[in-house]
Amino acid sequence: xxxxxxxxxxxxxxxxxxxxxxxxxxxxxxxxxxxxxxxxxxxxxxxxxxxxxxxxxxxxxxxxxxxxxxxxxxxxxxxxxxxxxxxxxxxxxxxxxxxxxxxxxxxxxxxxxxxxxxxxxxxxxxxxxxxxxxxxxxxxxxxxxxxxxxxxxxxxxxxxxxxxxxxxxxxxxxxxxxxxxxxxxxxxxxxxxxxxxxxxxxxxxxxxxxxxxxxxxxxxxxxxxxxxxxxxxxxxxxxxxxxxxxxxxxxxxxxxxxxxxxxxxxxxxxxxxxxxxxxxxxxxxxxxxxxxxxxxxxxxxxxxxxxxxxxxxxxxxxxxxxxxxxxxxxx
Length: 331
Fold this sequence. Notes:
The protein has 331 residues and is an all-alpha fold. Helix content is 55%, strand content 0%. Helix 1 packs antiparallel against helix 12 (255-280), helix 5 (119-129) packs parallel to helix 12 and helix 9 (205-212) packs parallel to helix 11. The longest helix has 26 residues, at 255-280. It has 14 helices and no strands.
């Protein structure tokens, strides 16, 4: 006998693949998974990179203020790039982010006009923070994205990333996940605005998301990228490939992260890790990376509170210690 349950796909005796999973932590494994995926991507050969460092700073801001404050985020990101006699602590940053940091240091942190996937992992933090407020996910993701990007495809890719992370907090998976992301993102594309660059690229997005539905279950990164269009430099094709990989429920939870990292490096690895972490909760990962207990606590506070960072270390101090070791004397 088949049991029809709203929101779930009925199963037959011959269909043994899991169609859903149970909520675990409501997203609190986000940062742990993001750091794991970043480390898997190899942007910094000894662990997580500037991708995780940015997400940490953004998470700190959201924990305290529960909104995106562009000035506060710019200042906090700039702090990790060093000032006066302080050394920079970013590691393995992308060229786009390095250029933005240089503009920030020069007093003109203008957003970039070209396509970029840098915003994809950053947006997952926003998605988890506002997972119960669908409109806020869109509003706050765009507020964060516009700090860095004017390119329409880059902003839309961030929306896909944020809504995927938000849905994963409630164990949404499979075709339901992709359909839910499309239903959340497509009607809001006009909010990206006429002042964005390359908005004509967005016209293809509805068909591209729909085309993913017939391929849920793909586990190979190269195959997923080919289905999404084949161009990892296109932020929409990149995020759609990773979305396809993370959609299925799998006992080998780190597999989609490894495959996403294989085709998209640390950017897609961090995104896939964040989504899997949001779905699975605080969970040990198969490979080691520094500061895992810190990331677990950041995710816990982002989801459950309290809305302060009391007792958490200063991000600059953590990263400085990781790179250079303890300083002599008192600080």
